[in-house]
Every structure is written in structure tokens, then in C-alpha cells.
Records
---
Amino acid sequence: MRDYLNESSIMSYLIMMTPRLLEMKRVLKPIGSIYLHCDPTASHYLKLIMDAIFGIKNFRNEIIWHYRRWIAPSKIFQRLHDIILFYTKTNDYTFNMLLTPYTKGSIERKKSGILHRFKKGEKPYLVSNKEIQTEGVSENDVWQIPFVAPSAKERVGYGTQKPEKLLERIIKASSNEGDFVLDPFCGCGTTIAMAEKLRRKWIGIDISFLAINIMQNRLTKNEIKEAKDYEIKGTLYDIYSAEQLHKKIRIISKIGVFLKYPMLFLLIKKVPIKELMDLYIFKI
Ligand SMILES: C[S@@+](CC[C@H](N)C(=O)[O-])C[C@H]1O[C@@H](n2cnc3c(N)ncnc32)[C@H](O)[C@@H]1O
């Protein structure tokens, strides 16, 4: 790959990502899952790396996140999707099947005992009773979720903000109340806001001051308070705090904490220290 990609920006991106994905595998519990969001320019390279790190047999889905946006006409088909690679650490992973509610028409047909299964020229016929008893159909791997619109209530003013619906779906599918959710590139904190709402514990990491400020405001708005409900570690305000962080990193890295890279901020939901010690990131 190196020969082919040379010293390009995609190569440096992959070099930046690989050790972080290795760390993500290390900190993931055996029942855990990882969802890696990327766009079609990098997804095929990242899939090779994910296969190498997590194993081909632990690849679960390539989720297509399809959205609408205005694009100036050009000589290609409009690019209106991103990719989310879903891997697990083992075969024994948490998975809550999500259901897409039936359409009005399906519900009507369901009432009369006939569910929407058509073939051209054939009458609708009854599908299995099991399917009729459920509240909807199993979610598939193409997700239609709109971008966060400029006027949306959830918009917090961070360029790469992801829709809450997207994170809600991922968190609900792959964790239960009380589980830990970690987002190592958490931007304005959509993952942690949704993890909090869904009663998960959470850790968010980002390299940007702006992201941390926006995240703090977002949490405050939701009445989640610093010191009482969560802590921020690693913020650099001046030379003194940089030196302190440098010392801390040295100490922390001795006990194998995830926070290895300088200039990282870590937001962490307050949980009893024993639970943190159970977390794999705190193991040597
Ligand atoms: C695509 S955005 C994440 C958006 C997020 N899902 C949200 O809803 O806001 C990627 C984030 O990764 C952060 N980032 C980039 N390089 C990083 C690094 N080496 N370590 C930690 N965070 C990094 C950026 O500051 C940015 O906020």
C-alpha cells in the first residue's frame, strides 16, 4: 500500500489511524463493538486495516449512511452517503436488534392478517406469524438519516456534528444501560450526549479546544455538570498546565492508560473508581 499511496495525505491519515485503532481493540471488552465512520475516499483502505486488526471474521456490517444535501452539478453521480464499518472483538457481542416501524399501509394489511409481501402479478400473502407479531421489520444496513440542518434544534455549531439519531441507533444496538461507550474523536460530543441520555457511562476524547468548549456547553445545557457528573482531564491552558500534563502522562502511561498522546482532552463520566479499574483501558 505504501508503494502505491506514497507520501500522500491518505497515507498519513492511515498511519495516524492505525495505532489508534489498535488501542481501540485493546480497550474494547470482549462483548463490545466498534463503529468506524468514514467516507468513500478512505473506507476501502480502512476496511483492510480493520480486517487486519479485528479479524475478517469479526467484520459485521458495512453500514451506508444515506443523506440528502445540495450539491453543485458535476461530472459524477452525487455523493450522498458515508460509510460506517461495524466490527466486534469476538463472536459473543451485545446486539439488540432494532426494528423499523411498519408503514401505515403495512399495519392495515397486518390487521387483516396479510402482510406486505408482493411479487409482480401475485396477490399479497401472509408472511410468518413471527414477523406479524413484531413491531416492525429488522433494521437493515442502509440508514436514511438526515444531516443536522442549519436550523435544527440539536445544532451546536460544530462543522462535523453528527445527527443524534445516528448515534442513538449505534448505541442502542450495541450496548445496554450501564455499559461504557467510548468515542476517541468525539467532536462536539454527540456520542456522549446520546450515551448520557440512554443511561450509558461514557468517555469522550478530542484534540480540539473548540470541541471541548462546545461539548461542555452542550452538557451544561442538559444539566450535566462538570465536577459533579464528569471530569475533564488533560486541558492545556498555559505552559504550567502543559508541564503538569506531561508529568501526568508519564505517570499515567506507566499504568497503561489510553491517554498516551499529548494534547488530548478526555471527558469522563464520574463512576466509582472500582468500575474504572475494571475498564480495560486501565489495565497494563
Ligand atoms: C468528524 S469529527 C467528529 C464529529 C463528532 N462525531 C460530532 O458529532 O461532533 C472528528 C474529530 O476528531 C478530532 N480529532 C482529530 N484528530 C484527533 C486526534 N489525533 N486525537 C483526538 N481527536 C482528534 C477533531 O478535533 C474532530 O473534532
---
Amino acid sequence: MKVNDERVTCEICDAPTNLDDALFDEQAEVYFCDNGCFEDWADDNFHDIVEQYKELHVYAG
Ligand SMILES: [Zn+2]
């Protein structure tokens, strides 16, 4: 079996991370080494995330 050893770089801490272990945000197209870095990123991008959530899930009654 072929091992995928492709490396990606964490958006937050710049850690090189195995592609198989990394988290990928398909919207922002960035990688994170773990959930903690994703949460840091989410804090920094809170406004964008709220806007996007609103577009997708929030309707005027
Ligand atoms: Zn990281």
C-alpha cells in the first residue's frame, strides 16, 4: 500500500503536517494541523464565518 507522505503547512502555526493528519477548510482553502489551530483561525475570522452561516442557514421569518 502506498503511503501518502505529502506535507501541508498549518495556516496558523506554520507547522508542517502530514496531509492525512491535517484539517482542510474547503471554503477558505487552508490547512490546519489540529483542531486548536482551526479554532484560533475561526476566532480571527469570526465575522466572515458569521456572514457565511447567515447566508446558508438564517432566513427572515
Ligand atoms: Zn497549527
